[in-house]
Amino acid sequence: xxxxxxALPLDEISLPLVTWRDRLPWPGQGVPQANLHxxxxxxxxxSEQQREQLLAAGARQHCPPLTIxxxxxxxxxxxxxxxxxxxxxxxxxxxxxxxxxxxxxRIGLGNGEQGYTPHVTLSRKAGEAPATPAPDFLLQATRxxxxxxxxxxxxxxxxxxxxxPLRPRAKNTDGI
Length: 176
Ligand code: 3AM
Hints:
Elements: E1 2-9, H1 14-22, E2 29-30, E3 37-46, H2 48-60, E4 66-70, E5 72-76, E6 81-85, H3 91-106, E7 120-124, E8 137-141, E9 143-152, E10 155-165
Antiparallel strand pairs: 1-3, 1-9, 2-7, 4-8, 5-6, 6-7, 9-10
This protein binds ligand 3AM.
């Protein structure tokens, strides 16, 4: 079994984000730079067969590249996660997250949650919301990945099992 989720990697903005966070009185325990991502769909514990099905689904998925402004902070009190995220985001992001969640649901995965709040968790064990100036980062996402989450004595680590380019569905050129 492996613990899986689909997410956008942050690539070149992960370092500026942790640098920004670490200069501020940001609550909680900082997530390491290497673990930063924007979750698309949480899947949970998957068998080898389910993992293969998710890899196939990821390879079939289409979505144009996405530009997402990370311009607000937020806090999930139950999860004690403090995060940055967009005030507004492209509809294609919601469509992609929903499609990936449904791929999981069709094979018995996911946590049953229907809503989607795009966010990048910057810290955990946060007992309060961040009270910082608004962030101003631009995520230009050109790929998405299926990640495996592994618990180690040094903490959790997220390994991309596969990544696919964000590309729109090819236009039908046959005029049909
Ligand atoms: O970094 P975030 O918070 O977006 O919170 C976990 C993390 O996402 C989330 O999956 C990502 C990789 O672990 N996660 C863990 N357990 C979860 C659950 N039961 C969950 N998301 C929803 N339901």
